[in-house]
Give the backbone structure.
Amino acid sequence: MTTHLAALAMRTTPEGLVWEPGERWVRGRKGDVTVVDSRHPVLVWEPHLPVPQYAFPREEVRTDLLRPAKDPPAGRHTGSRVFYDLDADGEVRRNAAWTFPAEDLSGHIAFEWFPRTDTGLDHWYEEEEEIFVHPRDPHKRVDALPSSRHVRIELAGTVVARTRRPVLLFETGLPPRYYLPPEDVRLDLFEPTGHSTGCPYKGTARYWTWRGGGGVPRNVLWSYPEPLPAVAPIKGLLAFYDEAVDVTVDGERLRRPVTPFTASLTP
C-alpha cells in the first residue's frame, strides 16, 4: 500500500476527500509514548476544513494502543464510522483516532489534531521540529518582508498607528498583514489580555484589546514574541485585524477584507 500511494499525485475520492502523499518524517506522542512514527504520511483535506490532516499507514502506528471506540461520534469526519479510543501513558482518550471510508485510504489511520487537541496526541513533530495546531499545508506560503511603505491604522476614528517601517506578512489565502514596530503604535490606547492563539506557520500570539469601546472587537491587536524562524522579521511587532480597522497604505485607503476570521470578530 505504501509503494502504491507514493506513486500517486494529489487525488480526490468519491467522498470529497482530497489527499496526497507526504514526504516528511512525522511522529506523534502521548506523554512519553510514541504512538505514530511514520515516514510515509498522507495529507488529507476534508471538504469542511480549510487545513490538512495526516493519515498514517497502520504499520507505522501503535495499533496495540487503540481500542474500538465506546461512543463513536456521528458526522465528525467525512463519511467516517470507525473510531478508536487511545489507551496510552496511563490515560484513555476517547475517539482519538479514526479511519476514512475512501478506498484510496484504506489501511490508514488519522488522529485528532485540529481543532480538538485535547482528545488526540500531546506532541507532533515533522523531522525534528515540533509543530502545532495542524499540519502545514505544502501548497501554502508565508513570507515576512520588511518594507518602507507608509502604513496608517485608524480605529473608531482615531489614528492608532503610523509607520514607514512595517513588515508585510503574505500568507496564501489571506490578505497581507501589516506588522508594525511597537513604538509606532499607540499602545496606551490598548490593554493586554490573556488571550493567545497558535499558528503552525508563525508560532504563539499574545493579544491586546481596545480601551475605547464603541463596538470594536476584543483582541483586535496581536504580536508574536517568539515567532518561528521562517517569519523571524515579525518578532515583537504588532498587527491588527484589518477586518476591523481602517488601513491606509501609501495614501490609499484599503477596503476591509472578508476572511474566515470575520465572523469571529465580535465586540
